[in-house]
Amino acid sequence: MRGYFIDELLLIAPLRNAAGVRLFGEVMGVHKAPLAVAVTEHGKDTDEVTVDLTRVDYLANSALQTLVALALSLDPPQRLRILAKPELGLEERLAAHGWDTIDSLHLSAPPERGDARRRGTGPEGARREGARREGAG
């Protein structure tokens, strides 16, 4: 995988302004391998790799476990930064397993910006957003 992964449920794309990836859609157990490859690939040679889940509607527990395993594999000062909307319940899910105490795992709320109603979610919404940007440029 070089840069992108896409199937009927999920799009994984590199971040433009930081080391890491942005996910769109639903992250199921079958996505553990492409998720691990993408995060590892985009986290090379950096102290912080970001996984942006702000456009994710569902995150399977097995996918969350994959992110935790990736964070545990990092050497200080490296860390995995997860951006997620509160609806995914990651704060509670991490705390329930004691994963909220992992030093190399940092959960952040997404920054406030723009009108979220204009942005689609899932792979189709990501394609529409990309087409809109290409037409504007």
Topology:
Elements: E1 5-6, E2 10-14, E3 20-27, H1 32-42, E4 48-59, H2 61-72, E5 79-83, H3 90-96, E6 105-108, H4 122-136
Helix pairs in contact: 1-2
Structure explained in plain terms:
33% of the residues lie in helices and 26% in strands. The chain is built from 4 helices and 6 strands, in the order βββαβαβαβα. The protein has helices spanning 32-42, 61-72, 90-96, 122-136, and strands at residues 5-6, 10-14, 20-27, 48-59, 79-83, 105-108. It starts with a strand and ends with a helix.
| Count of strand segments | 6
Q: Tell me roughly what share of residues is in helical segments.
A: 25-40%
How much of the sequence lies in strands comes to 25-35%
Shape: globular
- SSE-based structural type: alpha/beta
List SSEs in N-to-C order.
EEEHEHEHEH
Entry keywords:
alpha/beta, about 140 residues, disordered C terminus
Question: Quick summary of this structure?
Answer:
With 137 residues, the chain is of the alpha/beta class. Helix content is 33%, strand content 26%.
